[in-house]
Amino acid sequence: MTALARPMPAAACPGCVATPAEMPAPPPEEARIALSLPGIHCQACISTVERALSAAPGVKSARVNLTLKRAMVEADPEVRAADLASLLQGVGYEAHELDAGALAATKTDAAGRALLVRLAVAGFAAMNVMLLSVSVWSGASDATRDMFHWISAMIALPAIAYAGQPFFIGAYRALRARRLNMDVPISLGIVLALVTSLWETSLSGHHAWFDAALTLTFFLLAGRYLDHRSRAIARSAAEELTALEVPRATRVTDGAETEVPVAQLAVGDLVLVRPGGRMPVDGEVVQGKSEIDRSLLTGETLPVFAAPGLVVSAGEVNLTGPLTIRASAVGQDTSLHRMADLVAVAESGRANYTPLADAMARGYAPAVHILSGASFLGWYLFTGDLRLALNIAAAVLIITCPCALGLAVPAVTTAASGRLFRKGLLIKHPTALERLAEADTVVFDKTGTLTAGTPEVENLGDHADDLPLALALAQGSRHPLSVALTRAARAAGVTPVEVEDLREVPGFGTEATWQGRTVRLGRAAWVGAPEEARTTAWLSDGEGTPRPFRFHDALRPGAAETVAALAASGKRVMLVSGDGEGPVRALAERLEIADWTAGALPADKAALVHRLGQEGHKVLMVGDGLNDTAALAAAHVSISPASALDAARTASDMVLLGGSLAPIAGACVTARSATTRIRENFAIAILYNFVAVPLAIAGLATPLIAALAMSASSITVSLNALRLKGTK
Amino acid sequence: MSILTYLIPISLTLGAVGLVAFIYTVRSNQYDDPEGDSRRILSDEWDDHPKP
To answer: Which CATH class is domain A248-341?
Structure first.
């Protein structure tokens, strides 16, 4: 709303218009590289970053956008984003590469801009016509009044023809589909008001409704703009999350490695995936040994051993050693994308939800038309005066025109989503808040949602004597289990023993020589221990039986509090996971969730959510993996964390921006409060109608009364929406 | 009341100038980075000569 608060900044600064050379340079035309800079906050940051980037070789120009915390760089083709990011890290700013292609949509928000210009035109016209109308109301008469009316007409007709287009188009579409929406009474009211006003003016009548038609357009456009803005902010934040995952892969051709965009990979290409990297394609391992983490796809926490011949899917994470993959499916054909079919089938869960505003319009629009038509007929039959009857019909339509109704929903959702955004929850879907308010059942996924996806040692206390050796071995590896073990042992104040020849065997574990014996930490089969159904690393010191280190997933911050708060507010909490029974049961007991299902396939999850929906429950699904995607889409409302796969984030209505689950419980409260405010706003708007409509039908409504009622109800509704911010 | 002949065109023209100026600011991307622009003005980096 900054633009509305100061509508004509340049008018106070004619120099700005006279010397266009001084206007801020537009962002580089073909910005090749986009960088996300979450840490910048001040003028000094802008200068430092721009200076550092411009000084880099090959960079033509760089411009920082502080609002989006982003830098756009135009540079020679050989400049790599990773180099620029590390350069900025050098001067003290965290920088991440963004995929410029995924950001393309936010670059110019053409729709928002068009709406803003329409709003400005409507505002300009409404102000001028209102000034003329005030003179008429305060007693201008005869020729002066006629002239003022004609000038008003000259301003109002072109202004409404331009600014009112969104409503006319909306109404036309609805009518063509034989439906009624809010745009129909709006358009009818505006057009009828203009027609009767013109007629009145040509007969030098007393009342013209040009000001009412324009103010109406202005207020309604303001509601539209608010709505559009809060959605644009959410969309841009969601796109930024997507753009942070730059789709790039390392292709191996004749032993030479080249970095290429994932889109350029073809079936049969050899792709190198380094430890910690995500598989860009479906394929088969041809070289290397490692372990892979499939939790995002299946919910399984147990890492899978990878060796030549193993079939891998896009989205799995490589853990220990470099792997070379022969691509068998790329791009749209990967299993990641095929999941979209499942989502499309499940989409129906949301499609039959009617937004509050539409439900309102369905009852309101016919009532208004019947009322207006009846008063026209009544007056015409009673007096036989067509002009009077038409005038009264127009007055009824103008008074009942859903001006406050148009603001009732956007004002509240803007306030609520702004509030939730600051708490770390991004509202992607326009009706998500209303649906969240209705949720009575919460279904959680386990891996990556309730748990953080990082393992934690469970039985550290059993290994007091082995810990120095285990730490010495674990230190040498980047495997998540080793990292967790190292962290836990260090925190316990353990000093590692001296070992020699420490080396990591990708896919198996770490090995070293200690006191003349070969010692190992790794997979069960490798150290000669029995397989277990849970995540376990075994330590073998060369003599005696190997000792197990058992791991469980660390809870995501806020998980316990969120589950407790949701249960306390009377919601049914369920846990559904694709993981094995052991880990799921353990977690359910830890969080006191009575209702849990283990080993659920993606289709099982979606079916469960669907069944709950058919039983009349409103399901809130919280999940992050590919296996949750269908369930997320089938649920009444869905939330996914920022760490989720792109597909899961796309399928859900809201995204948690931080690492914590804590905003969910608060969001349910805010959503309920927002829905209450929306209903209150509808009640206020209808109350005004109850007062004003009898006046209009009785033929007592003047343009002055219409203007007062309209402004008063719009302002009351907006103020009521702002009350939301005060609630804790 | 003949003064109206001048006053009305003048007021309309002034309003129109404001409207055109606003549309110009929208078209030239001046609302893309409101936060950054409000801070840039505090910088003395390009005070002596414009940014090349």
So the answer is: mainly beta
